[in-house]
Amino acid sequence: MDRLANTVRPYAWGSVTTIPALLGVEATGEPQAELWMGAHPSAPSLVDRGAGPRALDELIGADPEGELGAATVARFGPALPFLFKVLAAGVPLSIQAHPTLAQARAGFAAEEARGIPLDAPERNYRDANHKPELICALDEFEGLCGFRRPTEAAELLASLAVPELLPLVELLRGKPESEALSAALADILSMTGEHATAVVAATAAAIERAAATDDPTGQFAGYAFAAREFPGDTGLLVGLLLNHFRLRPGEALYLGAGLPHGYLRGAGVEIMANSDNVLRCGLTPKHVDPAELLRVVDFQAGPPEVLRPTADAGGEELYPVPIDEFRLSRYVLTGVARVLDGRAPQILLCTSGSAELTAADGTVLTLDRGQSAFLPGTGTETLLTGADATVFRATVTL
């Protein structure tokens, strides 16, 4: 068992207080957006086995089977297949979508062939992997996910009574579902200059009025928040095409390839395939590639499916997902010892209270709130105990 020393990513959209409060440290006054736990080469966790701190990706690279287990290496290759995070959004993140595995491989190869540097701002594909994700709320979590039905999106836009939005309303009402959504997104992404400025400004003003007078669902307050944080950004119009959602603590969403989504505010634990491939479409100062985005986005409509964990006889509450690269579960400990299967590598994060891990040789590691540990896939079981604690477990499905 290894206690992890993790990197905090200070992205501009991060909360100033959430991650410091979780870690029990003083806030710096600067945004702290993500706490990374894992072996991603850009910010790997550090472990100390007596000879000083070493990066987890280096340890895995030196002995993949010893760290991950033979079954994991055979199934996923000689690298940790997932990245585990705490995400704390103080302001909205960009609206984005992620490619399929085939799209990522083709896109990465094409950009490599064109000689685009990996750190270039116009780069879309920074690796050859897909990036499905799962976000699980730690507090009330608000965001946007998946397309509304075109008729629903048209009704929402029409309710704002903004003349500049009428072409979009007519477009959404006049075509079949996927064609309507594709055409509407393409129309928004093509807006530039004074026209874009005028449409976004008029829409933002109408949203502010709706939020102040008639907002029973609370969605207009979320859109108004985004509009204030990103004035003039056409991502506001993209956001109106998407479903607004709120997660209560413990609820989750799975975000597959091609699904447009954006987080507005809140904190959660997030797990994803070990990738950094993002196609953005608004609420961001970063690069937007309309043509590639339109190729990657899945134009199917429907409300997001909220996941609630189901517990097994061993007390593990699992969030089911349709992929094997990551598996997220939760233990709410009330004094009963729980046995952790050790056939696959895993990262454990304590989000409340205090828990203890006991290895087969009797070694004990205490995890207080905000602390995490890496357990290699050696095949040996570990005992998890705690009287009043919550522990999230990230691993893979074999």
| Fraction in helix | 25-40%
Largest sheet: 9 strands, antiparallel
The Rg value, from CA coordinates, equals: 22 Å
Strand content: 25-35%
Outline, from the CA principal axes? globular
Q: Count up the helices.
A: 12
Q: Report how far the terminal alpha carbons are from each other.
A: 21 Å
> What structural class is derived from the secondary structure elements?
alpha+beta
- Kindly state the number of beta strands: 24
Rounded mean pLDDT is 95
Low-confidence segments, given as residue ranges, are none
Provide an overview of this structure:
- The structure is a single chain.
- The chain has 398 residues and is an alpha+beta fold.
- It has helices at residues 18-23, 56-62, 64-68, 70-76, 101-113, 150-159, 166-174, 177-189, 193-213, 219-229, 235-240, 290-296; strands spanning 2-3, 7-9, 34-38, 46-48, 53-55, 82-89, 95-97, 133-137, 141-147, 242-247, 252-255, 261-273, 279-282, 306-307, 310-311, 317-319, 327-333, 338-340, 346-352, 354-358, 364-368, 372-375, 382-385, 389-395.
- The chain is globular.
- The two termini are 21 Å apart.
